[in-house]
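Table S2 (continued). Query chain:
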Amino acid sequence: MIESWRWYGDLDAITLPEVAQTGASGIVTALHEIPYGQVWDVDAIATRKARVAQGGFDWVVVESLPIHESIKRGEGDLTTLFANYRQSMANLAANGIKTICYNFMPLLDWTRTDLTAPVTGGGTCLRFEATRMAAFEVHMLGRRDAEADYSPDVLNKAAAWFQQATQADRDALLASIMAGLPGAFDRYDIPGLRNALQSYDCIDREALRAHYKRFLEEVVPTATDLGMRLCVHPDDPPRDILGLPRIVSDADDIAWIMGAVDAPANGLTLCSGSLGANPANDVPAIAKHFADRIHFAHLRNVAKDPDGSFEEAAHLDGDTDMVALVQVLLDEESRRRDVGRADHAIPFRPDHGHHILSDLDRALILGYPLIGRLRGLAELRGVIRALSHESKYA
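Corresponding output:
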């Protein structure tokens, strides 16, 4: 497996020399400064690649080449947007970068209600709190029919939280929910979010699937011709949010996607944290079922609560059997090696991490600390080494 590290370029306070000390060999990055829908110029890609190479790394995965909201909504003449996406793919391929991670989450990317939840023993983590999400949707946003998405107990606790919350508490909740991924250009206040959500009023699950299938039909043949791999990132969290449908949340969703355009270039980013936040998902089983279409892996763990809340756990803790999951990925690598695939190695990165120790004193991208991810990478490296050793002498 290829140890890699997500790096945000000039947006990132963590430097490449620091990343080099983690032992990772690959970099996962993107041109976050380019607005969604515009072409990634071949020279801009080459400049970023050269900078990564000067740090001693290979640029192994693009994360992400974003999909414009108009494509997700299926609105207007999309000819230029699809052409721009294909051109960006071609420009990446011309620079030898062949794996693209992307998502099809409408409007927002990952969603959390607390970016600095306390961790036992010290430090902080990302958390999704069902009570606060309900308070936001029902009492702050005033979304129609939001109550139907929550249990009576959660709704009662949400009302109590809202009544005692200060304006600063409410502002912090909005900021957390809007945080998403660095590189997203849109940040909304409450009126702005209401307006943005209205653009999805007539888009249900089946309509969003239809728009996604059109996207795949437009870009997967190009990926095939270029020798590229597209890998969709699961929804985070894997449930409808703000009344918006989520269509990459479980094994049935993934099976539909893989069959929508049945080609090796149409693949999956196996994110154990995103899929693991759904109590119905058996992440190692999902990985085994779709192993031949996994082109990239995000390895992290979550601990879930019965009410639908969850938080980032240490990489080997939480509810997903990380050892079993890594074994599935190693078995798939072995299968690919046996059939003669030169690209048998699966790139992975330690996804997210607790903010601990001196990370707490640095202005780092929340969820992407140095020491917390280093801890995760070291733990995962140990699992991989032990399983590989066991297989060697079996």
